[in-house]
Design goal:
heterodimer; A: about 290 residues; mainly alpha; MetI-like fold; 2 strands; globular; B: about 280 residues; 2 domains; two-stranded antiparallel ribbon; 11 helices
């Protein structure tokens, strides 16, 4: 028994445990790829990625509309989320006294704690009827999804942006003020450029969240497999495609969903890698 | 055209104020809207009775049990691994290629969308390891998902324990593990708990990863191998299949209130931790 808890065995145990995250990551990537990649090769990469026909029962597996759907919805959420998040971050970090920020920042971060299904439900109950009545279309649309997702990623971008704005040395601001700059000039000419890479990292993390979001998106996009012509069209995203059909898919159809997962995984990995580089650049500069 | 700096200042600041107010207004609206519609429908009967007619009537008791069971199991699985990894990274090695690989792995894991965790859990735990739709499959999947959060927050907490504490312990003849176990970990505990609480909040709200791994049985579970339906899955099914908006709002209220309470207490814990450190 004593042997079991000796310093050496504890160190060994901890070393093994420390690789749990890497092991988990590899396990996930390997299993998704094992299940999905053979399918992609069977159907053909270009047919799978660029065909617009998704009829699993007929053996047609083209996820092009879903790729477009994911991209359009994510882009829309960025258009909604980034201006709000950045303005909020600048205002909170530069204009609001410290005690007030200590209350407001956690409050906004609480937004991140609300489950995505609840956001989706609000989209269905409040936003979709408004869009249907005032702008036309089915209501469940790219527009509704963009607004809901934009609100969902807001806390991520806001909180990382605040951190990187706070990390800009006070001397930058003093220098700009000393040159006679107004507060706003100081912010957009001295502070923002210095905080840029941190803010970009935050935006990329938000982007990753938006592409990966599933439940809220299923509820508000309407899930039609079509190429959208306007923001009022219904679309289906890659994530929604997996979640909607996983419940009953078998055989080739199920493999095709894992293949969709492979594509999603690749997109996310590329994004994360970019974010890591952006963050590392910021750290390197300091 | 050049606008005078004085005016751009006024314009910019008012836009910033507007955007911040809009953000806060959205938050308040979401919470007030859901709670306003849900609170009137919540009573002891709703919380403690079984659902009837697919959830159109009755309560949500089994889903509360399911949520608690799933979350607790996931935390019990992930915490030892997360804290162990953090201890290894901070106390047992120097910065090296290995620590960078481990951190990179944790960061990547944190970025993987929950639907991918769901797919993986389905193919690995449910199908390959033949655990079926069960609390065990669901909580293992969740544990994978919350592991990076626990690693990160534990690491920060352990790093913030002053080095002098360790020196005193070493000077008394304690070994490395004794120092970690009796000095470092107790002092880092509030910080570690904060990470655990945040993970609990995330687990409660999770849907996509759970629906394909824990299933959606409405019966109260009796063992780890029973399928369960969590509150968020129940809410999703109620809302999506239009079974009952009234019950959906009430379930969402219970969901939001419990998550807000957990997140608030983790903030409180974190602040106390920071305060004590600065003293």
């Amino acid at each position: 028994m004593m042997k079991l808890f000796s310093e050496k065995s504890i160190k060994k145990a901890l070393t093994v445990i420390a690789f749990s995250a890497i092991a988990a990551l590899l396990l996930i990537v390997v299993f998704i790829i094992l299940e999905g990649l053979p399918f992609i090769f069977k159907v053909g990469i270009s047919d799978f990625l660029f065909s617009s026909e998704w009829e699993p029962q007929m053996g047609r597996f083209g996820i092009f509309p879903m790729i477009i759907g994911s991209l359009v919805v994510t882009l829309g959420s960025m258009i909604v989320g980034i201006p709000l998040a950045l303005s909020g971050a600048i205002f909170l970090s530069e204009f609001v006294p410290r005690w007030a920020m200590r209350i407001i920042k956690p409050t906004i971060e609480l937004l991140a704690g609300i489950p995505s299904v609840v956001y989706g439900f609000i989209g269905v109950m409040v936003l979709a009827p408004l869009i249907r009545d005032y702008l036309g279309g089915p209501g469940l649309s790219i527009l509704a999804a963009s607004i809901i997702l934009g609100i969902m990623i807001l806390p991520t971008i806001l909180s990382i942006s605040i951190d990187s704005l706070k990390a800009v040395p006070q001397s930058y601001r003093e220098g700009a003020f000393a040159l006679g700059a107004t507060h706003w000039q100081t912010i957009h000419m001295a502070v923002l450029p210095a905080a840029k890479s941190g803010i970009i990292a935050g935006i990329i993390l938000g982007l990753g969240r938006a592409i990966g979001e599933t439940m809220a998106v299923i509820m508000v996009t309407g899930n039609a497999v079509i190429l959208p012509k306007s923001p009022l069209y219904s679309v289906r995203t890659l994530t929604a495609n997996i979640a909607l059909e996983m419940g009953y898919a078998t055989g080739m159809h199920r493999q095709s969903l894992f293949a969709t997962g492979v594509i999603l995984l690749i997109i996310i990995m590329v994004l994360n890698y970019t974010a890591t580089i952006a963050i590392r650049r910021r750290v390197g500069k300091k | 055209m050049i606008i005078r700096p004085k005016y751009t200042q006024v314009l910019a600041v008012s836009l910033l104020v507007l955007a911040t107010l809009a953000t806060l207004a959205i938050l308040v609206f979401i919470i007030v809207f859901v709670l306003g519609k849900g609170l009137p429908n919540i009573n002891a009967e709703f919380l403690f009775s079984n659902p009837e007619d697919m959830g159109r009537a009755g309560g949500i008791f089994p889903t509360i049990v399911g949520t608690v069971a799933l979350t607790l199991t996931a935390i019990c699985i992930a915490t030892p691994f997360g804290v162990g990894t953090a201890v290894f990274l901070t106390e047992y090695t120097r910065e090296s290629r290995i620590t960078r690989i481990i951190r990179f792995g944790a960061d990547c894991l944190a970025g993987i969308p929950s639907i991918i965790f769901g797919l993986f859990g389905f193919i690995f735990f449910v199908t390959y390891l033949r655990m079926g739709w069960s609390i065990l499959s669901g909580s293992l999947t969740l544990a994978f998902m919350i592991l990076p959060t626990i690693i990160r927050t534990s690491e920060e907490a352990i790093k913030s324990v002053p080095y002098s504490y360790r020196e005193v312990s070493f000077s008394l003849g304690a070994t490395l593990w004794q120092t970690v176990y009796k000095v470092v970990l107790p002092n880092a505990l509030p910080g570690i708990l904060t990470g655990v609480m945040l993970s609990v909040g995330r687990s409660i709200g999770e849907t996509a990863a759970i629906i394909f791994t824990a299933g959606s049985s409405l019966r109260t579970p009796h063992s780890l191998f029973d399928s369960v339906r969590t509150m968020s899955v129940h809410f999703y099914i109620l809302a999506r299949e239009g079974l009952s908006n009234e019950k959906a709002y009430a379930t969402a209220t219970v969901l939001i209130v419990s998550i807000l309470m957990i997140n608030l207490s983790s903030y409180w814990l974190m602040n106390r931790f920071i305060l004590r450190k600065t003293k």
